């Protein structure tokens, strides 16, 4: 079954010079990989340290809001992909069942033809 994956990669930690005792990611990278989708390349969104360092509290909230919107969008796409995968799986199972029925009918027809041929020989 095809699915989306989400990963947040923190490439480097850095303590700011104002010494708040916190570490901030120098580069935060959010990967939205669309695996097994006909060779499509994964979608990547990067937030650089400059974007974080130059932002105010509102800017950080905007960045978090952007990330949340991206995550919501990813979740929506993931749910849609799961729904489509389940539907495709159901169609495949139905096709296999139809094929099995056709094969059984074919074998029954061959058996009946052989019986009829045997009767005609007698």
Question: Could you name the key traits of this structure?
Answer:
single chain, 122 residues, alpha+beta, 3-stranded antiparallel β-sheet, two-stranded antiparallel ribbon, 2 helices, 57% helix, disordered N terminus
Description:
By secondary structure, the protein is of the alpha+beta class. It has one domain (4-90). 57% of the residues lie in helices and 20% in strands. The chain has helices at residues 49-53, 57-121, and strands at residues 4-10, 13-14, 24-25, 27-34, 43-48. The strands form 2 sheets. Strands 1-4-5 form a 3-stranded antiparallel β-sheet. Strands 2-3 form a two-stranded antiparallel ribbon. Strand 4 and strand 5 (43-48) form a beta hairpin.
- Oligomer kind: single chain
Strand order, biggest sheet?
A: 1-4-5
Task: Describe the largest sheet.
Answer: 3 strands, antiparallel
Low-confidence stretches: 1-16, 19-32
**Which structural class do you get from the secondary structure elements?**
alpha+beta
